[in-house]
Amino acid sequence: MDRAVRARGFSPADDNEADAIALLLWADRDERGCRMRWHPKGYGGQRRDPDEVKREGWREQGVLAVSADDVRLTWPERELVRQLGERLYGKREREARHG
Predict the structure, then answer these.
(1) Which residues 6+ apart lie within 8 Å of 82 measured at CB?
(2) Is the CB of residue 66 less than 8 Å from the CB of residue 88?
């Protein structure tokens, strides 16, 4: 085991450490022998586009995440979003202090 671990670039202090490293390397593989991902989908590697996450949330979960200041919306649409937000969650801090 010591030789196999050293061949992979490790320098174990003794046989026990070599066995522990070998066990970790073995545990890092799935049933097909492929490296396992140790992070949830969307974490590690490339960051997903926020609009892609919002689109996926809407299409798969029916969850709508929209900014009350989104410039793609008309004024009446932004006002509707603001009113829905206030009804469900109360006034925004910025509006509560100034309004």
Answers:
(1) 68
(2) no
